Every structure is written in C-alpha cells, then in structure tokens.
Amino acid sequence: MEFRLEQKRSIVTELPGPKSQALAAERAKYVSNSIGSSLPSYIAEADGAILRDVDGNQFVDFGSGIGVTTVGNGHPTVIKAIQETAASGAHFQINTAPYGSYVELCKRLTELTPGNFEKKAALFNSGAEALENAVKIARKYTGRDAIVVFDHAFHGRTNLTMAMTSKSMPYKDGFGPFAPEIYRFPASYPYRDGLTGAEAAARTISAIEKQIGAKNVAAIVIEPLQGEGGFIVPAEGFLPAIVDFAHENGIVFVADEVQSGMARTGKWFCSEWDGIEPDLITSAKGIAGGMPLSAVIGRAEIMDAPHAGGIGGTYSGNPIANAAALATIEVYETENLAEKALEIEAKVRAAFEPLVGEVATVGEVRGRGAMLAIEFVKAGGKEPNPEIVKEIVSDALSQGVLLLTCGTYGNVIRLLPPLVMSDELLDDAIGVFIESIRKFS
Ligand SMILES: *Cc1c(COP(=O)(O)O)cnc(C)c1O
Fold first, then answer.
1. Contact 122, 284 (CB under 8 A)
2. Closest CA to 365 of 298, 425, 433
C-alpha cells in the first residue's frame, strides 16, 4: 500500500509542541471544558496508521478514532467517494427527496449481517441514535416497555442511552433523571466472575424473570464484545443461551455492534463468533471510514413495525456518509481486512500473552481480531490497577504511541489499530508498549 505520510512514529518537539500549546490556550477560552481529549497534541493530518500533529510529531494510532477509521485514516477510496459526492452538489434529505445510495447501502448491510432471514435497515448519524431507534422499533414491535441491559455496558450519551450505559463517571454523573424502564443485570466476565457461559446465562435469566417478568421485556440489548466496559469477551455459550431465552419469550434480541462490527473482530460482525443471529444489529464507528453514519439492521417484520415517519432524522443517511460507507465496505472486501484483523490478533497475542504470569500486573489479554485489550491488576491478585495504566499510556505517548484506555475500573488498555497498519509499525509500537509495561511493573 502507498501512503502519503511515512508510516513511522517520530517525536520532533517537546509534547505538546508549541503550536499545540497555542491551540490548547485558545481551546481553554472557547471550547467547553466538558469535552475531553486523550492526546494533548492537535492533529493536522492523518494517513493509514499515523496521526501527524501541527508541530510535525507523528503518532502510531492504536485508537482509530475509537474504532472508526478501521480501513485506515484518510483512505484514498473513501476520500474519492466523499469528494465526488460533495461535488454532486446536493444535500438530499431522505424524508423529503429520496436517493439511491440510501437504498444501496441498506441492501449491502442486510447482506453483510448474520441471519438467513429477510432483513431491512434504516440509517442514522451516531451510535447512540442507532441504539435509540433500535429500542423504539423493538417497543413498537412488541408493544412492551422493559429494556434489559448489562453491567459494564456502554450504549451512548443521549438520555435514553445514558440510562442504558452502566458507568456513572464520566457518562452519567449529574445528568439525570434518566429514562425509565431500563433494567440492568450481570452478564459474563470470565476473568472476574469465574462462571461458565451456561452458569452466567442462568444467573441473568433468573434475575430477568424475577425482577421484570419475561413477558414484559421488549428487548435485550448487549454488546457481543463489551467495548468501553473493558473489551470483555463473554464465556462461550452465554450469548446463545440469552438469544434462546429471548426467542422463547417474544423478546427482541439486539446486538450493539457499534464498536465490534464491520470487520473489526475478523468477521463482518462479532455475533458470528458466537454463532448467534441477532434480531436487530446496531452499527456505526467503523462503518463509513470516518464519516458520521450509523444503522439499525434486522428482521424485516421488526424493522417494519413503526409507522412511516416514526423513524428518521434530518441528516440520517446523508448521501456523503452513504458514499463513504459504500466505499469503506468495498475497501474491507478488496483489501481482505477481516483477515488482516486476525493476523494482527495473532501478532498481539504472541507478544503479550507470555507476559501473563511473568509480569504480575498483567492480568489478562483478551478480545477478538483487532479489538484486543490487556487488563492490569495489582501484583499478587486481581485488584484493578488504574494507576499503572495511566503511567503506561503517558509513557507510550511520549514515545509516539497513542493508546486508549477502557474498563469500568479504568484498568484496561485497548488496542484498536487501523487494519492497514504495517507489520513493521505494529512490531515497533508493540515493542514500545511492552517496554512501558515493564518499566512500571
Ligand atoms: C461508541 C459506542 C456507542 C455510541 O456511539 P456514538 O456514536 O458515540 O453515539 C454505542 N455503543 C457502543 C458499543 C459503542 O462503542
């Protein structure tokens, strides 16, 4: 692959550099303090797996804008589609004047999602908006109110999705009251609960039956690989048991694949790893190569339940985002990026798994494909260790490697590399990360 920017980390100023510091000073005056940033440097351009700041420093991007630029930053095929569509001159709006790319993208998404049944889709702007609409659709279809969500869940920052999200700080603190009829239960967290998939599912199902009653539940909403909560992979058998319970009781099973979908885990959707066929899937993040777009895809009879005009939005499925998404899907296919995700997984596991047992602070290495994480603990036990995570992230950053954290306890470092990251760059960045781990362990 050809890149505009050399695929190499390079720190040429103090961090943040003088131009970034000037922008930070302006920001302090004009940007609400409620907006946080992981990186103190300001980005001028990006290409492939490299972010270049306004001072000329280059960072290896292990975040992909939180799993958005999975096809690489500024992929030429995606840029071309955006440019051509922008030049076509129109802002079309689906509720007033429809256009073909909306139809074409919905068709492609119904083909890519698991489930051998008739499917339809609807398009939106953000992940949270997709979740909001999945809940609306499921409630209309079932005529029921209750929504089941889980410990460690993240579903967004709007009022309904805040209620569905598990973590108070920073997502909910002081922002209530929250939407009603949201019920939270434990899911499956093998490293911490030690339960098999069947045991964890039995615990969840019993709690749902006792506390809500299955016949009152409209939807069960779950991330098949929990993202923000710590890249938690449920024990084998947990998800299929929950899907069976949902179907025995007329409950809509919604897989929130906003982070885990679109080739990130080595399959189009993470649900495929567990052999489940969700009734509805929410997708966003990696779907459009950096443009704001999200979707709800699922069983045609459920998707058709709301009345015409009941679902929509001014910018939902706008033509530029649609063109970017169609181009992004083409890139996933032509560059075999799902396979690339599995190669990245093999490399990362080979590098980090030997540290478990050898380095006392490395608790667990887990994830699927290029959605991988390391959970850090205090030496000699499983107590979460958010302190070391802060030190490692800051040390790696000073050497040009951008790492993101996650986890309910703030003790997990997640790797979400663009799938076009070269082997050399991956090896180099892994080396920096491991050195930082050893330095503070
Ligand atoms: C990021 C995320 C969301 C929210 O998406 P936004 O675009 O930030 O609204 C919802 N669910 C999951 C699993 C996510 O990772």
1. no
2. 433
Distance CA 436, CA 394 (A): 9
Q: Return the ligand 1 atom nearest residue 125 CA.
A: 7
Residue 156 has, within 13 A of its CA and on its CB side, a CA count of 25
From ligand 1's centre to the CA of 161, what distance in Å?
Answer: 9
Q: Are strands 50-53 and 43-47 parallel, antiparallel or unpaired?
A: antiparallel
CATH at residue 340: 3.90.1150.10
Pocket around ligand 1 at a 6 A CB cut-off: 126-128, 131, 154-156, 223, 227-228, 256, 258-259, 284
Q: Do residues 98 and 177 both lie within one domain?
A: yes
Q: Let me know: does 331 contact 71? Beta carbons within 8 Å.
A: yes
Q: Which amino acid is at 308?
A: A
Q: Are residues 321 and 401 in the same domain?
A: no
The number of folded domains in the chain is 2
Q: What is the pTM of this model?
A: 0.98
Domain carrying residue 48: 18-74+336-440
Q: How far is CA 246 from CA 163, 182, 186, 278, in A?
A: 21, 16, 16, 10
- Chain center to CA of 37: 17
Q: Strands, E, within 345-399: which ranges? A: 362-368, 371-376
Question: Which of 305, 334, 363 delimits the end of a domain?
Answer: 334
Residue spans of alpha helices (H) in 221-336: 238-248, 300-303, 319-334
CA of 127 to the centre of ligand 1 (A): 4
275 and 157 within one domain: yes
Site to probe by mutation for ligand 1, drawn from 149, 259, 280, 287 as the one with most ligand atoms within 8 Å of Cβ, is 259
Same domain, 344 and 266: no
What is the average pLDDT score of the chain?
Answer: 97
Write out the DSSP string of 10-58: B--SSSS-HHHHHHHHHHHHHS-TT---S-SSPEEEEEBTEEEETTS-E
Tens of pLDDT, residues 222-243: 999 999 999 999 999 999 999 9
List, for residues 26-69, the tens digit of each pLDDT value: 999 999 999 999 999 999 999 999 999 999 999 999 999 999 99
Residue 198, SS3 per DSSP: helix
Say whether both 129 and 148 belong to one domain.
Answer: yes
Question: Which is it for strands 217-222 and 146-150: parallel, antiparallel or unpaired?
Answer: parallel
Max Cα–Cα distance, the chain, nearest Å: 63
